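Reply to thread "Modeling small-molecule complexes from scratch"

Following up on the discussion above, here's a worked example others can learn from. I took a protein sequence and the SMILES for zinc ion and predicted the complex. Inputs first:
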Amino acid sequence: MVNIDFALSIGLYSILSIGLIILAWFFGRKQKDKDLSLDPKFIWFCSVCTYTYVQTKDVAFSVCPRCGSYNKRPTEGS
Ligand SMILES: [Zn+2]
């Protein structure tokens, strides 16, 4: 009985350890993905043709790749 309990606790401990490692890896990866994801200020929304596009340059105006019209920065951050 004692041996079984001991084995059981070792097994539970192992499962918990592996679970924690998987959780840490999962959240670490999620955080990395979040860091790699696009900043909302780089996502532009054309007011003329309603086309959504990405402009990674930090500019006040950008040209819509679809209709060629100029758009003002959608959201002024901070
Ligand atoms: Zn447009």
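What I'd highlight from this example: Residues 2-36 form the longest helix (35 residues). The chain has two domains: 1-37, 38-78. Questions welcome below.
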